[in-house]
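Form 7-S
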Amino acid sequence: MSGITVGIDGSAHSAHALDWAVREAAIRHVPLTVLIVDSVPASPWTGHPIAMMEPDRLDSARQAAEEMTAKAISQLGAGRPPSVHVRAVTGFPVTELISASQEADLVVVGSRGVGGFARLLLGSVSSQVVEHAHGPVVVVPSSHAPA
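Output:
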């Protein structure tokens, strides 16, 4: 699927990214995919995700993402993206966003604004996505205020 894919996690930072992505998809007249990843731990032996068998957890994440998306779209004027799809998956956020970047024209993520040495030590989803994505990435800073 082409268009814009935005990764959200329910935080205020991802809400800014979602607002930006919704407006950009409306301006460009392209589909919008909202991706929420129910993050799971990695196996210390294999590094693969340890699947949590909690289907209600993924459904809750999807429902929260749908509500967040509906709120962002309701704040638009007349122009809206031609289609909006909310996708909830279980896995590693970085891996899922990089995978989504293979089909998206643009990937949008938020930034927690952690900088300097702490960012180097901790890493971040946004910096890893920027480094490994298969196409363009927009990182919406945490100070972003919708116009």
